[in-house]
Amino acid sequence: MSLLAVPDRALVTVSGEPAVAFLQALITTDLVLLAADEVRPGALLTPQGKILFDFLVSRTESGLRLETDADQAPALLKRLTLYKLRAPITLSLDADTDVAVSFEPVEGALRDVRFATSGAPIFRIYGVKGVDDVEGRIDAARIAAGIAVSGADYVLQDAFPHDILLDKNGGLSFRKGCYVGQEVVSRMQHRGTARRRVVTVEGVSDLPASGTAITVGGKAIGTLGSVAGHTGLAIVRIDKVGEALARGTDILAGEVKVALALPAWTGLAFPVPLPDATPETSEAGA
Predict the structure, then answer these.
(1) How many CB atoms lie within 10 A of CB 16?
(2) Is the dihedral of CA 241, 225, 5, 39 positive or negative?
(3) Nearest Cα to Cα of residue 14 among 71, 69, 55, 70
(4) How far apart are CA 84 and CA 186, in angstroms?
(5) Is-contact 99 9, C-beta < 8 A?
(6) Which domains, ranges and CATH numbers included, belong to the chain?
(7) Contact criterion met (CB below 8 Å) for 123 and 116
(8) From edge to edge, which strands make up the β-sheet containing 110-112?
(9) Residue 253 to residue 212: CA distance in whole angstroms
(10) pLDDT for position 276
(11) Quick check: pTM over 0.90?
(12) Rounded distance, CA 222 to CA 212, Å?
């Protein structure tokens, strides 16, 4: 099978004996669980718990690599440098190494945990050229699996890790020690207050452009992200979706009627609203 190129990506490498300990105290991913043959999603958060940078993290012979959008890589490197202080590590930016994916295991490829979790495996390969993805197979697979990415599906510094399902796909730890923003996301987890989630979107016709509001009764409950014909992704208020489903109210993306579904691999379900309270009809003394 041909390898498919993933354009506009760059690598930030963290080298040196303390590389794992350095990143373990900063990012959402539990690096103790990171196997040598896989890549895991992760994020560096703001102190308020929102995603400042997103990336895929994997091991190298000398440390770790963070694969991210080429546009945000320099800023990610700069931010990590601020945290470096006197740590005996080397941080560097590699914008020249090619990134490719395969839908089948090949020599040197790393299993993408996001897709493995969803049951539709994809593998990433570094330093090997791929052909152009003219059929949009990578995005189609990502949409089908319910995997959101920054830029296409959400704006950095505007989403919590729960919003993009990092708590379900190996990108967010609640068991390791403290990291930037950890207190906020842990509170969301333990209080069950995460109400915005990625959903798959199926339209009765072609969906409108990314950025279009998802509405119920004229009120916005989320925003359409990646789009491929009739299908797409959106981040929505799942409690509002549950209310709409219970009432049989249409959900729209622009003017297009849509059906929303939480990815099956998450184990999540739309909340079922409590029945409306009804006044007592019995009279005192009856």
Answers:
(1) 16
(2) negative
(3) 55
(4) 25
(5) yes
(6) 4-146 (3.30.70.1400), 195-266 (2.40.30)
(7) no
(8) 4-5, 99-102, 123-126, 110-112, 38-45, 51-60, 63-69, 9-15, 90-94
(9) 6
(10) 65
(11) yes
(12) 9
Tokens of 277: 């309270």
CB 96, CB 8: distance < 8 Å: no
Residue 66, classified by CB atoms within 10 Å of its CB into exposed (0-12), middle (13-18) or buried (19+), is: buried
Counted residue by residue, the chain has a size of 286
Q: What is the mean pLDDT, run by run of 10 residues, along the chain of 286 residues?
A: 92 97 97 97 97 98 97 97 93 97 94 91 96 95 96 96 96 92 94 94 98 97 97 98 97 98 96 66 39
Token pair for residue 122? 């994809």
Contact 112, 38 (CB under 8 A): yes
- Residue recorded with tokens 């993805």: 133
Burial class (CB in 10 A: 0-12, 13-18, 19+), 98: middle
In this prediction, residue 86 carries a pLDDT of: 87
State how far the Cα of 241 lies from the Cα of 245, in Å rounded to an integer. Answer: 6
Nearest to 80 by CA among 56, 39, 52, 59: 52
Q: What is the DSSP string of the chain?
A: -PPEE--SEEEEEEESTTHHHHHHTTSSS-GGG--TTEEEEEEEE-TTS-EEEEEEEEEETTEEEEEEETTTHHHHHHHHHHHHTT-S-EEEEE-SS-EEEESS--TT-EEEHHHHHHT---EEEES---B--TT-HHHHHHHHHT---BTTTB-TTS--GGGGTTTTTTS--SSS---TTHHHHHHHHHHT---EEEEEEEESS----TTPEEEETTEEEEEEEEEETTEEEEEEEHHHHHHHHHHT--EEETTEEEEEE--GGG---PPPPPPPP----PPTT-
